[in-house]
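Query form — protein Trypsin-like peptidase domain-containing protein

QUESTION: What is the three-dimensional structure of this chain?
INPUT:
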Amino acid sequence: MAQRSVRNGPGRGVIRDPCHSGGGAREESSGGTDVTDGWNARPPQPPPPPPGSPWWSDALADPWRDPYAPTAVVVETPGATTGPPPEPVTDPDAPRRSYGPILAICLVTALLAGGLGGTLGYVFAVRGGVATGGGTQLGATAQDPPAAANRAPDSLAGIAAKVLPSVVTVRVTGAIGSGFVVSTDGYVITNDHVVEGADDTMSVAFSDGSTAKAELVGRDPESDVAVIKVAKTGLTPVAIGNSDAIAVGDPVLAFGSPLALRNTVTYGIVSALDRTIEAGDAGQTRYYAAIQTDAAVNQGNSGGPLVNAAGQVIGVNSVIRSVGGNETEAGNIGLAFAIPINQARRVAGDIIDHGKARRTVIGATVVEGGNSTSGARLRSVEPAGPAATAGLKANDVVTKIDGHVLEDGTDLVALVRKYAPGATVSVEYRRGTKTQTASVTLVADSN
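ANSWER: The structure tokens for Trypsin-like peptidase domain-containing protein are given below.
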């Protein structure tokens, strides 16, 4: 039955629903107060629970609990779904998680790491000898920096230290070149074009800064080799190697005074062997089968030694190939050429012993310029000369000499100059369509 309330005026009573009043009794108001509809009516107070009761002590007094509502125990079966999952309950009075301990741990760890790193750095700095003087020290200092004299003799630095005292800067009027000492009493090998125009003012400078006067002993324009004598004794000569024993790819050092920069050493390899060179100016042509290297060589390097990995001289730096339009613009592009030391030493020995060099010849002249076919075509053959004795004739085309392929007449002249007079070489030549071979014993010219 729905509850129905009647708001009366003063002195009136309240009619309650029997299900709440317990019997439909009518209660009268005894005063002048307003009568409500009973929404805040209080139920009768229950008796206090007996001692030892397992229920809440104030459960029956809870105004929000209907003491007459039936109770039941519900057991949920795992996996059974009877409705939407209950919302998570968060206790507003539970203590919140604090990030303070985590931040404190991170801070302590950082301080410990920084302190440990600083301590180790200081210890290492003190042991390394940098914590001295009280000032700011940049970088680390080695305990015992090795001196150049302590380098291994076969290292590049060791080879440079060994050779440099024997290398000289040659000063000629208006020009600077290089050379190297070959005897204790002062003989120096250099290029012919270095001493061209030399007079009594010529001098040399050593790697230690000392200087001495020098005089011309002799020169051979065709081989580009010259010898000068230094007015100083007790010198250290270079070690002479064997230029016939080198191979493409061997490491080499070039010494000299490029662009007047004294005591310069550059490094490279042997790029090619028997590179035939025809060079010269003012009507003088020079021929030699050169050692090609990519070691940096520039003007002023001329006459300086090219040295192998054993510290032995194997060549005399002489010319470079350049893309410059003229001599003043010429510079290193990795194409430098040296006279083989076997040839230079032989020419220098002739100059010292005889006052002039002997030139090796085959006893024939060649056609200048290129040919329609590869090889050196013989223009003429001297009667009773080496070529004629071996059976060669005019118009024969020499294609190889000791296995070296010839492209033109320059190759033949340059390669013949490489050998000493009296050497016997194998020659392959073509006569018409037939290829033949012969052995030729070379001789010195009669001049």
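ADDITIONAL NOTE: Helices lie at 18-21, 100-127, 156-163, 192-195, 341-354, 386-389, 409-418.
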